[in-house]
Amino acid sequence: MSTYAWIGLGNMGGPMTANLVAAGHTVRGYDLDAEACKAAATGGVQIAGSIAEAMDQADAVFTMLPKGEHVRSVYEADDGIWANATNHMLLADSSTVDIETSRAIHAGSQERGLNFIDAPVSGGISGAAAGTLAFMLGGAPELMERATEFIAPMSGKTIVAGGPSMGIAAKICNNMMLFIDLMASAEGSQLAEALGLDPEVFWQIASVSSGRSWAQQTWYPVPGIIDTAAANNNFEATFRTDLARKDIGLALDAGQSTGVQLPAASLAREHFDELISQGLGDKDCSLIVKNLLPDGVVRGWNPKETESAPSAAS
Ligand code: NAD
Q1: Pick the catalytic residue: 38, 171, 246, 304?
Q2: Is 171 one of the catalytic residues?
Q3: pTM above the 0.90 mark?
Q4: DSSP letter at 211?
Q5: Superfamily the domain 3-163 falls into
Q6: Would 162 disulfide with which of 115, 166, 184, 229, CB 3.0-4.6 Å?
């Protein structure tokens, strides 16, 4: 059995650590948010008062934080991860961050003789709870076997993407493809309906034809077609628009630094920015369907219901 230090016990870190505890490991967690700590403690995580306390005698140190700036700050702080790490520990960042941050943490760790991998995930909150997340790993080959063992209780599939920052590169490209596919489902669903197709019949046709995609199968933005769609639930978030905006922005930044043109990703960013400018950043990203109709009135979306409901933001 191993001892894990875990920094960031939010929507993803909470259920991921619960699975480590359920597998018999010791987890010492640290988070700035008292509610997140409380929830993680009910899953069996021992709450630490500092990063140093969480890392004391740890075998592995995971970060699951919102953005690159948070990851940098916990690594670089005077009493942060670098200050407390030893070369016996495996350091892993599972947050979705920008390439530059990931490279900087790899370089800083290497300079200090420490073992760092990037280990982002796909599968969302439900995959975190079920222990079926897909992990994509980037780093030195000799770290991968040990990393895969640490990850096993949280993962349905772990794939070594390549050297340093290749895990995060895969994650950014994957999510960019997802949001472009989401635009296709949004546009296809509305045009089909406007042309008089029965929505259920059209979805069945696309499912066995070339319009099929993960977004079409899981997030189809029309109510009453598939259970997992936010359209059934007034577009309460399964994947928040502001997080989708963050991820598409990471892809566009990478496109700019590499010179690759990403016009479809730019369009996706416009969709998300439009929703955010309307104060809908905490709603599901599939609400982009609303941008397609001249009056913004779309089946499944009732803004009044949202105004009277308790805030879904977390
Ligand atoms: P979240 O906001 O629910 O959790 C992040 C936690 O980090 C919060 O509890 C916050 O208090 C804590 N935190 C922030 N700064 C901190 C600091 N300096 N020290 C300690 N704790 C700190 O976010 P989440 O949904 O758990 O996502 C985490 C990461 O995983 C993000 O990068 C996200 O893009 C990525 N991700 C999320 C999903 C998803 O479906 N939610 C899926 C795949 C990947």
Answers
A1: 171
A2: yes
A3: yes
A4: T
A5: NAD(P)-binding Rossmann-like Domain (3.40.50.720)
A6: 166
